[in-house]
Amino acid sequence: MGQYSGASQPQQSHHHPKALVEGHTQPLLPRQGVDKRVILVCSLASSLFNPLTQLTGMRAESPAGAFHRAQPPRPQMYNKMWHQTQEALGALLDKEPQKMVEPQRNQVFIFQTLATFYIKYVQIFRNLENVYDQIVHPQKRILIRKVLDGVMGRILELKNEMVELELTEFHYFDDILQDLKLAPQQLDIPIPKYFLKEKLEVIKGREKILAQILADSGIDTSEMKFPVKSMPFDQAVKLIQIAERARQGRLRALFMKQIYLQEYRAKQSKTLGKKVTDAWAAALCIQKVWRRFHQCKKTEKLREEEMIFLGMNPPPLFNEVSATVIQAEKVDRLRNEVQMKHEEDYREALVTIKNDLKLIEGLDIKENLQDQIRHWFIECRNLTGTFPDYPDIEEGGSAIIFSNKTVQQVIEDIIANQEEEEKNEKKKKKKKEKQPKKTKRQKKGTKEKNKEEDEKWKMSPSLFLPAMKEGCNAYKEIWMNKDESWNFSQDFDPELIKEEKRKELESEIRVQVDELMRQELKNLKLAVDREREHPAKVGKKKKKKGKKGKKKEKKTKKDKDLTADRTIESLYKELVEEGLLIQALKVNLSDYIGSAAVHEKAPLVKSLLLAGPSGVGKKMLVHAICTETGANLFNLSSSNIAGKYPGKNGLQMMLHAVFKVARQLQPSVVWIEDTEKTFYKKVPNAEKTNEPKRLKRHLLQILKLLKPDDRILIVGTTRRPFDAELQPFCRVYQKIILVPRPDYASRYVLWKQIIERNGGVLTSALNVSCLAKVTDGFTQGHIVKVVKAVLTDQRIRRQIHKPLTAVEFITAITSMDPVYKEEEESFKNWYAKTPLGKKRALAITGGSTEKAKDKGKRKEKKEKRAKKKK
Asked: Distances from the Cα of 502 to the Cαs of 492, 497, 498, in angstroms?
């Protein structure tokens, strides 16, 4: 693959292919004789190297189109996108239950259906996330957010189903992507921007507090990175003198060299003798040299233009930030400001409109409710002969009876319920009399049927489909055919707020009305029926409540708060000073190559293990998770907690403080580096003093105490998982992911990006493809070390005169050991022993997980019998 340099090159507007690649705003006519296929190739080349396409994964567009896109957008554009996405989601929600109702046996068909739904939901998620970020209307944003959380949760559910079906964390969707005519980039799940936007101020405040604590305790990392060495004045003068004398010596040497060359030429001319020079011959010689030089430059330029035209090299000024991108960033900032302003106006309107409704309609609502309840009293008295029992406050009061119903409908329901109860009692009596006893054959038949049904695959019920359907119904009722021609600025809709606040106001007034009507009902009963309440019943209820209270007290005794007398701020400060709460590095997931509502219902993952050889980016992934989600990072590695909080009580206090702060300031990530040390088979003598197995017993207890509401993730990283005991290791970590070393394509991108980040300039002299091929077996960490070792400050300055070559990097990497095949196989063999690896191996061989469980139970029984005999 051809190499290219990021330096700017002279532009030639007359050359048609280059003009097309650069994407001029004016349409250019092709030269005579140029085939239409050439123009097509040009447009493809421009799409390959358009920075906007690489960022968004969408089709390329010209700078003019990008400029118009960067202008403040019209509401119709994103409204249209929202309507199209909602239609696609509605169609998908209609199709999904139809295909998932019938149980299936064909595993390939099941995976294809799951994968197609997964890919379609990902497309919907990408569109909804974009719409939520761009739309300014506050009430629309609330509904979109609700649907977005539902789609996000459904994606996680489908991913979990595919993992359970194929028994692997990695899936291949090539055929399905081809059928749906989608690019692989469109399968990437973007991290929602609102994750950080909504709690940006909280994260900034937390970072300031953390920096202040580190500065006060003298552990400030920013100052430790660049230490300044003091130097005496005399030594500094000597260094300056040495540098100046060296400069003068170099100049003197150049001057003497020029004099020597002049004398040498004069001597040569004397020895050869005086010859008459032919002016025409000299001119021809000069012409030849100049024409050859000019032709070489011209061919180089044409070759480079051809490479740009074919898409092998990027266009000039490719790496520079264009004016369109700058304009788009400005528009994003303006849009964020408008969103904030509209949300503030919406919050103020919620209060003011509610107060206005209370003043204007409050008395009317109260009178209507009282009339409605009185009418119910009278009708029930006429039908049943007695006054009804008024519902308690805990049950919801009169709202249960009159929820979207008239008085007549309520009375009809009461009569229907009485009739149904009588019928059900009669049916139960008849069934008890007619129930025949089942024979052994019938029991066997039912067991066989149950086994057959178990063998068939069924989709597990979803917790997010109802929320998505509810969101789609709300969209159809309110926004689908709504006329918004009056609301060009996309501010809040006051009529919708009035509808919402009327319901709230009604529920608030209903509580007051219920108290009045309860008293009125008592008076009516005393006056008409002469009924009195029995105090014994009330006493019994109170006693029951007392028992419940005792049960709650017993539960609270189990969970003791060891730091009840301390504030979160003091615990936070203590953990920072002890080095247990550390500052996460600013690393994005894009550099490596949740929402609370989703977290509560999604498939719960409390712990995650990243296993792989050193240098593949496990630590970087942990920091990237914290950066993208704004999570706190707690370091409970065995090397970090060694000598801190000694003894059993000290360890309990440390874990209690860590998880108390993690719950209060969630989301949080608890990181255990080199986690195999916590589960050592045999502790080495050198590490016995550090007590690496301190956390082994407590980790399982901590995982059991974590609730679905707790957004806490325990992440372990290991480079030697085979040194740990397998069973407790796999019990603690629910998800195990092997991080592989980079392939050729990843290495090619890595070399380019890391060289450019460290100040290197890519030229045609540097063969990146050769570097990527030669460094097969080396990890990302090796590449970073090599680049930093080669690109010193002095070497960066000399790039203008001496460009970088591949030999410089190859000589530096020869001193490092790559990841050998034996090490990779040891990781694969270890992964095959994990629960998911065992299940996959059994599925490949044709066995089942149930057989494996039966074998395991038989072995255990045999071992127990052998022990008893002994």
From this structure: 17, 8, 6
> And the tokens for 681?
């088979």
Alpha helices in 436-534 (DSSP H): 440-455, 465-474, 494-524
Burial class (CB in 10 A: 0-12, 13-18, 19+), 556: exposed
Q: How far apart are CA 501 and CA 351, in angstroms?
A: 9
- At 258-277, the pLDDT tens digits run 999 988 888 887 777 655 56
CA 167 to chain centre: 22
Amino acid at position 194, single letter = Y
3-class secondary structure per residue, 518-548 = HHHHHHHHHHHHCCCCCHHHHHHHHHHHHHH
Helical H segments across 707-848, by residue range: 726-732, 744-757, 768-774, 780-790, 793-797, 806-813, 821-832, 835-845
Query: Reading across the β-sheet that carries 581-582, which strands appear in turn?
Result: 581-582, 632-635, 668-673, 712-718, 607-611, 735-738
* 789 and 808 Cβ atoms separated by less than 8 Å: no
* Residue 521 and residue 401 in contact, taking contact as beta carbons nearer than 8 Å: no
Structure confidence by residue, pLDDT tens digits, 670-692: 999 888 888 888 888 888 887 88
% of the chain beyond a pLDDT of 70? 74
Residues paired with 611 in a beta bridge: 718, 738
Dig out the tokens for 182 from the structure: 């989608």
Q: Do the beta carbons of residue 781 and residue 617 sit within 8 Å?
A: yes
Is pLDDT of 381 > 80?
A: no
The β-bridge relationship of strands 712-718 and 607-611 is parallel
Angle, vertex CA 835, rays to CA 831 and CA 836, nearest 5: 70
- What is the distance between the alpha carbons of residues 188 and 119, in angstroms, rounded to a whole number? 10
Give the separation between CA 282 and CA 289, rounded to whole angstroms. Answer: 11
Task: Give the pLDDT confidence of 155-197 residue by residue, as tens digits.
Answer: 988 988 888 888 888 888 888 888 888 888 888 888 888 877 7
Q: Give me the amino acid identity at 550.
A: K
Residue 173 near residue 111, CB atoms below 8 Å: no
Largest CA distance in the chain: 149
